[in-house]
Amino acid sequence: MPEPMPGGPIHPDDPDLAALAAEGRVVAYFGYGSLVNRATLRTKFLGIRRATVTGWRRFWLPRGLSMPPLLSVRPTEGFETQGVVVYDRADHLPAVDEREAGYARRVVMPDHVRIEAEPAPGVPLFIYEASPVELDAADVGATILQSYLDAVLQGFLSLYGEEGVTRFVAETDGFETTILADRADPRYPRSVTLSAGEAELFDRLILQRGARIVQAG
User: Fold this and answer.
1) Which one of 9, 120, 161, 199 has the largest count of C-beta atoms within 10 Å of its C-beta?
2) pLDDT tens profile 183-216
3) Quick one: CA torsion of 76, 82, 83, 86, rounded to 10 degrees?
4) Separation CA 180–CA 145 (nearest Å)
5) Which residues form the domain of 181?
6) Using an 8 Å Cβ cutoff, are 178 and 212 in contact?
7) In this predicted structure, which of 23-37, 88-102, 140-154 has the lowest mean pLDDT?
8) pLDDT of 97-113, one tens digit each?
9) What's the average model confidence in pLDDT over 14-23?
10) What CA–CA distance (Å, rounded) separates 49 from 102?
11) Which residues sit opposite 41 in a β-bridge?
12) Helix (H) or strand (E) holding 97
């Protein structure tokens, strides 16, 4: 399994992380979407690290005709997916489960993840997955929000560079659908501001992947 791309810290660790982990009061979960962008973080986590998980693949999960798709993962033997590992207090796990309602929480075994500068070895690690037979956004023609996608891609660019963004677009299933151009008037509540270079890069990659950008009506 390849090492995650080295770099600076994503977010300062809580000074109590090591002590809480030693007391068994810390859990971790793998983030593969907007959690990768530090600009979207609204909760005080104990720590966050770049990481690569093996055995799951990212895809665009449709949520019905009136709701835009979100990113999820589904079991895929041997597949490697980049993201982050978030360290949190164990008593926050029920709230995370509620937020991820509709997903199955699975244990990630230590030999299925590589964590950069792991701060608390032995902490239980989870991933929230969709059904392996779930259709993706391209299968049903669901429309992805550009403002949500921008936040995710900016995060991957920050942590993994242009190579990481290119890999994200190439390896995420369901991109062959429409993207709603809401960048100027974002519908995603944790939207981000892009540089001209970021916008050009992201649009070029998704168009090459088979997506179609449509104007908001």
Assistant:
1) 120
2) 999 999 989 999 999 999 999 999 999 999 999 8
3) 80
4) 5
5) 17-215
6) yes
7) 88-102
8) 888 877 899 999 999 99
9) 96
10) 26
11) none
12) helix 93-99
**73 lies in a domain?**
yes
The CATH number covering residue 83 comes to 3.10.490.10
Between 123 and 99, where is the model more confident?
Answer: 123
Structure tokens at 151: 């936040």
The chain-wide mean pLDDT, for the chain, equals: 91
CA distances, 78 to each of 31, 57, 74, 112, 142 (Å): 18, 9, 12, 9, 28
For the beta carbon of residue 66, count every other beta carbon within 10 angstroms: 5
Rounded Cα distance, 1 and 200, in Å: 31
State how many domains the chain has: 1
- Does residue 145 lie within any of the structural domains? yes
Structural domain includes residue 5: no
Nearest Cα to 183, choosing from 207, 143, 213? 213
Are 178 and 217 a contacting pair, CB within 8 Å?
A: no
- Environment class of residue 190 by beta-carbon count within 10 Å: exposed (0-12), middle (13-18) or buried (19+)? middle
Based on its alpha-carbon atoms, the radius of gyration of the chain, rounded to whole angstroms, reads: 17
Using DSSP's 3-state secondary structure scheme, residue 216 falls into coil
Predicted confidence band of residue 7 (pLDDT cuts 50, 70, 90): low
Q: Sheet of 47-61: strands edge to edge?
A: 104-107, 125-129, 26-31, 70-89, 47-61, 113-115
Please compute the mean of the pLDDT values over residues 141-161 and round it to a whole number: 95
Q: Which pLDDT score is estimated for 117?
A: 92
The reply to whether 179 falls in a domain is yes
Whether residue 89 contacts residue 29, with contact meaning beta carbons closer than 8 Å, is answered with no
